[in-house]
Prior knowledge:
Blueprint lengths: L3 H20 L17 H8 L1 H4 L2 H10 L4 H12 L4 H8 L2 H4 L7 H20 L7 H11 L15 E5 L4 E3 L3 E5 L1 H8 L9 E3 L3
Parallel strand pairs: 1-3
Antiparallel strand pairs: 1-2, 3-4
Helix pairs in contact: 1-6, 1-8, 2-5, 2-6, 2-8, 8-9, 9-10
Protein name: TIGR03083 family protein
Organism: Rhodococcus koreensis
GO molecular function: metal ion binding
Amino acid sequence: MTDDAVLQRAVANEFSALADVLDGISEAEWDTPSLCEGWRIREVVAHVTMAARYSEEQFMTRLRECEFDFTRLSNEIARSDAELATSDLVADLRSDTMRAWTPPGGGYHGALNHVVIHGLDVTVPLGVPRRVPEATIRIVLNDLTAGGGHSNFGVDIEGRRLRATDLGWSYGSGAELRGAGEDLALTICGRTLPAGRVEGDPL
């Protein structure tokens, strides 16, 4: 699954699957704290769907206004756009723009990692039984480990063995951390999971 056409379909499927989940939750549940510190479900979805509402020119204008501090811009847009109607946010998830979106310099691998991790940031605290397809979570796990993606989150996996208990995937050697592939991916991204989701020596 390294072909762009295949990866693009996986990205589109993940956005659609997340939209399907959020179509079925109450307005109150949109205020549930996500796994992204300081963000509710609303802020996460507003962040994930920025490209559906801002052209490249508009985005760059906002970025210049934030002195090219992407984290600051992300927080500002997440806070403001979280107040949009939830139906609009779900529609943005289903938009053709997001189905074909790639982050600057990240390609479809970057897009897939983005939507999978943020999708789990939403579904885990909601307690929604959502399973990322095995082929997709394998790509994400490989990108976060052998691909070096873990360094973006300040997480050290040197000298560690990571083993997925729900699929035949492992990485590295050393003290073992094990859990479902989705939970390992979240842990590598520095998320704090509910107790009992992973076992072994913490990262």
